[in-house]
Amino acid sequence: MAVPVFAPWDDPTQKPLIQFKGVTKRFGDFTAIDNQTLDIYTREFFALLGPSGCGKTTMMRMLAGFEQPTEGQIVIGGKDMKGVPPNEREVNMMFQSYALFPHLSVWENIAFGLRRMNQPKDVLEARVEEMLRLTRLTKFAKRKPHQISGGQRQRVALARSLARAPKLLLLDEPLGALDKKLREETQFELMDIQENTGTTFVIVTHDQEEAMTVASRIAVMDEGRVIQVATPSNIYEAPNSVYVADFIGDVNIIEGAAKRAGDGYDITWAEGVPPLHTRKEEGELISIPDGGKAYLAIRPEKVAIHTEKPQGMTNAVQGRIIDVAYLGNLSTYHVRLANGTMVRAQTANTRRLALRPFTWEDEVWLSWTDTAAILLAE
Amino acid sequence: MRKFSLVSVPYFWLLILFLVPFLIVLKISLSDTALAIPPYTPTLDLSEGWAGFKAFWSELDFENFVFLTEDALYWKAYLSSLQIAAISTTLALLVGFPIAYGMAQAPDEWRPTLMMLVILPFWTSFLIRVYSWIGILSTEGFLNQFLLWLGVIDTPLIIMNTKIAVYIGIVYTYLPFMILPIYSALEKLDGSLLEAAEDLGCTRTKAFWLITIPLSRPGIIAGCFLVFIPALGEFVIPSLLGGSETLMIGKVLWEEFFNNRDWPVASAVAVVLLAILIIPIILFQRNEQKQREAGK
Predict the structure, then answer these.
(1) Residues of chain A falling short of pLDDT 50
(2) CB B196 to CB A95 under 8 A?
(3) B215: closest chain A residue by CA
(4) CATH number of A250-376
């Protein structure tokens, strides 16, 4: 049985749940968000990813209603949100600091939003119990926030923000305060909950791994602009700029001059060595004039390392191993090419340490296929 | 042993400066008035040894406390003091809370200045500041002159020597004690809690009542006690601003000591006042304790 692919952004008949239309936000002289247009669809797990100060939190706070756009329009569920205060939006937020009410018990924290909805008592109680079960907090219902652990507090915050069954849930660095192991577990929990409740999630994070794990689509942001919006695999495999390629994962960037050649481009990157070749993938729109500046982005795991010059490879360069980073399952070799460019090659450590042929100061050859590298104009 | 000696220092301090004076006052309250120096009997004569002590002991009695219940003046003064202290505390809270709230909302760079302004009056003697209120509140005072000039009133208001003047004096004097604990509670309040409340469907006003007020409650309670406790025994303000009309126990105490030179009755008044104050003091301590535990 084929599972239908979830990709409403490719379906022109789908109406987005959230639309940013030419949104600009200024704080005094500072432009936090610069004329951005962005669509987010129902049931998406959408990640806003970027370094601190890139505007991702401002985007989220505008959705929650804590900030109003200086220019442009934000539409949620077909309704213009201009002047709608936070308490009248079907949007809830999970705060970075969790913002649990310290004077209320876990139970009362979760009930807080429901009490504002004037529901009958038994409906309210049933909903709180449901949320406690969903987040496995039933045992801690009577405790105060300072009497539970960080991971439990995180779940209370999640339960509280989900209790009102919002159309849209905003998560502001939700896992930032958790240690690595707990964070990874919680990421999967979040995905399960998102799937089970069918709520649209927008998550703000600076952690690219987190974004890659949980999100259906990622918007990579920098200095108030969305640089690229794509699925995690497309962000990784087909970044649209050096900035995105560099921000997501590890990447080698080789700068050179491009020239059309055969099914793609030849990149001249150093004197006295043959140019590197990259094949143009179907649907790739990039076009660089002959002699124009271009960047090759190659992921370290796509670079193979050899002792002898590999035969039949279009892209092969020679260099010397400067550094070896041993990570247990992987090793990363830092190789300096003749012109000083550093290239990292990553190999899986399938053999025991003593059997591996490369070490510091070795002269080695690096190679990659002509589809491994991504050609970027900027 | 070292720990014991460290702990014993504050207890020793309390013993010398609080318990011993209190026991002396208690002893005087059980004595009889006399035309002598000191103006009461008996005095302990150690030269007669055990027999002297027994004679001394047999002369102590509760006569003065009984006397307090017989003369309506005393319990009226106690009640009136409680009432004035309670009303002043409420007024100080109504004035102090908005000030503390405003300070906590002010931009960071303003806060030290505002704090300074609250504390500034302490740099001048309390007595002088209370005296200066006479100049403001009296019939020919600044306030009446100003209101007459504005045309709001045509005959001067009589504020001096009324309870209103006492309320003004107490609220003015003890306002910093109300503001500072409330400010310190409000300042710690995490702004994201209010945003969370709004996010969960509260209007700003509702968020204020459901979040700001409960979370500043320890500060409000502390502030109220810090105003109520000294206001109850206040003597200077009712003497200077309240005139003869205002009956407060602090003033009665003063008159017993210095006008009537009846030390035993004055001491009895003081002991009863202390007994009354112990209740709010214990409640205050419990509030502080709870706050410390919650802070952990």
Answers:
(1) none
(2) yes
(3) A103
(4) 2.40.50.140
